[in-house]
Design a protein that fits this description.
Elements: E1 4-11, H1 17-30, E2 37-45, E3 48-58, H2 61-74, H3 76-81, E4 89-93
Antiparallel strand pairs: 1-3, 1-4, 2-3
Length: 96
């Protein structure tokens, strides 16, 4: 299995930006303990306090997909999605 990076950009509802920033900090702290996660970086856009980007490193795409399935089945994704202005944009990327 090849390591993979996942880049996800979220846009929080303006009235929820501070709460979403706190949630993203919690994700940054807890995600590295997930099976197969090699690390995570969190970025906020300098010109828009509502936009956040996670750069996650995983041992494999299947590790990431298993993690996401768990987040969805636990109901945690629904809580996070309620904070968003729209669907997140994500992609799997290989480092060149």
């Amino acid at each position: 299995m090849n390591p993979i990076n996942v880049i996800i950009t979220f846009e929080a509802k303006p009235e929820r930006a501070s709460a979403f920033a706190e949630l993203m900090q919690q994700v940054k702290q807890s995600l590295p303990s997930a099976d197969g996660c090699r690390g995570v970086q969190l970025f906020g856009r300098a010109d828009n306090d509502c936009v956040f980007t996670l750069v996650e490193s995983w041992e494999s795409r299947s590790h990431h997909q298993a993690h996401i399935a768990g987040v969805v089945s636990s109901g945690a994704w629904d809580k996070m999605a309620a904070e968003l202005a729209g669907a997140p944009v994500s992609s799997y990327c290989n480092e060149l």
